Amino acid sequence: MKKRFMPGNAVLNRYDGYEFKVFRNNFKNNRSLINNRINAIGEDAEDNLWVGTSQGACVYQRHTNNFSFLYYYTPQKKAKQLNSVVNDVEADGQGNMLAGYWRAGPRHN
Fold first, then answer.
1. Number of neighbours of residue 82 by Cβ within 10 angstroms
2. Residue 22 bridge partners (DSSP)
3. Please, which residues bridge with residue 13 across strands?
4. Of residues 106, 101, 107, 105, the one with CA closest to residue 40
5. Is the pLDDT of residue 1 over 70?
6. How far apart are CA 59 and CA 32, in angstroms?
7. Distance (Å, rounded) from C-alpha 86 to C-alpha 88?
8. What digits encode the pLDDT tens for the residues 4-56?
9. What is the CA radius of gyration of the chain?
10. Beta bridge partners of 12
11. Beta bridge partners of residue 81, listed in sequence order
12. Mind giving me the DSSP string for 50-67?
């Protein structure tokens, strides 16, 4: 049975058919879930789980059992961590993952 991921009340749960594993943010661990308020979950072609939260997005790599934060590039080609509310994550027809996010106020570069 394939493992199923479900957003819970301030956690992310994984069920493997026998037991639950609970993922939570741990501010002392930069490989944990970025935020506990889950808004969206998507899966890419390589079986990675993309999680949109109220404080950005992260990717869970099943083979390492770790999360990594999602970054984007500014027009000046500077990498910045996405820390806006992410409401949707989807794969396009070419296998790219897209994150729909909301940003409060004017954008400053």
1. 18
2. 13
3. 6, 22
4. 101
5. no
6. 10
7. 6
8. 665 555 678 888 889 888 899 999 999 999 999 999 999 998 889 999 999 99
9. 14
10. 7, 23
11. 71
12. EEEETTEEEEEETTTTEE
Q: Which amino acid does the sequence have at 60? A: Y
* E-assigned strand segments in the chain: 4-7, 12-15, 20-23, 38-43, 49-53, 56-61, 66-69, 71-73, 79-81, 85-91, 97-102
pLDDT at res. 25: 93
Q: In angstroms, rounded to a whole number, what is the distance separating the alpha carbons of residues 23 and 100?
A: 22
Predicted pLDDT of residue 93: 85
Q: Which amino acid belongs to residue 12?
A: L
Question: Does residue 106 or residue 46 have the better pLDDT?
Answer: 46
Give the mean pLDDT of 44-72.
Answer: 91
Per-residue pLDDT tens over the stretch 78-100? 999 988 899 888 888 888 888 88
What token pair was written down for 54? 């109220």
